[in-house]
Every structure is written in structure tokens, then in C-alpha cells.
Amino acid sequence: xxxxxxxxxxxxxxxxxxxxxxxxxxxxxxxxxxxxxxxxxxxxxxxxxxxxxxxxxxxxxxxxxxxxxxxxxxxxxxxxxxxxxxxxxxxxxxxxxxxxxxxxxxxxxxxxxxxxxxxxxxxxxxxxxxxxxxxxxxxxxxxxxxxxxxxxxxxxxxxxxxxxxxxxxxxxxxxxxxxxxxxxxxxxxxxxxxxxxxxxxxxxxxxxxxxxxxxxxxxxxxxxxxxxxxxxxxxxxxxxxxxxxxxxxxxxxxxxxxxxxxxxxxxxxxxxxxxxxxxxxxxxxxxxxxxxxx
Length: 294
What we know:
Shape: globular
């Protein structure tokens, strides 16, 4: 059940407890990305906001929380195939050890301008609600226009939805990406899923001042870290002059990256065409499912 964008806000939402559960690993690039997160947006001290980095270890028998690092290590091998089960174990621990209204499962290559995030009223209801940037599922080069899913760069859910998600059996979704599996599971119960706008400078080549950004580069991993600092400087600008200057640095970096990387130019041209196709597919999907409305 897909709904329109989250937009209506509640003046009391800032008092709600929000937890960011951030997928982390010992992969050298991910470790550096995490370090840049910690010194940019995740360093911001906003009331009611907590960031917890989620790792896995097959050497543990029970979850281990390292308070000094805000790190939760769950008893499972840290691998791509285990991300879904790792997420479930992390959420189970949160439900037992934290009181939260909204949970955002994300990763180390995502950026959130915390002070500018606005959560809508539906996310704080006592009914399961999920949200995120909606993408089109694909298997290889085959696109399934009937299956939208919440991108794993930011899966938003309220406490009730988190409780429901813990009942998912990862063994039923072997070979399916974790974000697609989570979306499929929630849709089985006809849980409303709202779409949220997201910036994705790598796919579009354009920066939009949206408080939720995907910064990952599939070609040059260190680009994520550069973008993290540049985007953070933009959102932290204290004047119009500073914001324009920061924006200029972002585009200067992207232009330099474009010219020094032939792979980037080829990928950007493909992504631009793919983005146009995805927009068309998403519009067709929403039209097809227009019956699901308030």
C-alpha cells in the first residue's frame, strides 16, 4: 500500500525519540565512511536523537553494546548475505533496550541533516507505518514495475512497524536484497508505505538541498567521504553567502570528478537515462495503485 509523500508535521514531533540504526562493517572503506559520518551529521547533538552503528561478529553468543563507541555488535557473521538477519537482531535489541518512536535503518554512506528532518504525523501513530525513498525492484536487468521497495539507504518505521518486522524469517528471503525483502514483508501485511524525497548526487549529477542524501559511489569509494564533508558544510552554512560558497564547492568537486573519471561519465549518462525511466515507471505504478488512497 503506497502513499504520497510525507509532508504534514506535528509541533510535538521534535520531542519524539528517534534512533538511527546504521549498518557498519570492518570493510576498510566502510570504516572510513563511518568515521566521516561521526565527524559530520552524526556528531550533531540534537535532543531525542541517537545514532547506533551496527556490526556483526560470529564469535559472539549474545549482542554486545559498546557505549563509548555507540556500537552494537550482534552475533552473526558480518557479510552481505546476512544484512537482513543482522538488521532483525539489531532491531530486537533496540526494542528491548531503547524507547523510541521512530527508527531509521540506514548505512555509512548516507547523510541526514538532522535539524532539518521533519517527521509526519502518520509515523507516530499506534499503527505500523513505514517510509523511505521508493525504488523499482529488478532482478539482473529485468525490472519488476509491480514491485516498489524502500531503498536501504534509509528505511523509516515507527515502533509498531519495528515490532512487526522482527517477526520476519530471513530464511524465507534468501537471495533477495534486504531492503526488497523488508518491503515485501511489510506489504504482505498491507502496511502503509509512504514515499520520502531523497537526494542522490551520484546517480543524477545534481545536488538538491534535501535533508536525506545518498552519497555512495560505486566506482571510487573515497568520493563518499569527500561528499559527506561538502554536503555537511552546505547544511551547516550560517548565511546565504556561506551556503552559495558551499554549493559552489560541491559542484566544483563533481565537475572535477566527472572530468578525471571516464567511468564516471559513462555511468552518469546511463544513470540519467535510467532515472528518467524510473520516474516514468514510478508514475505508472502510482497511477495503477491509485485506489490505495486516504
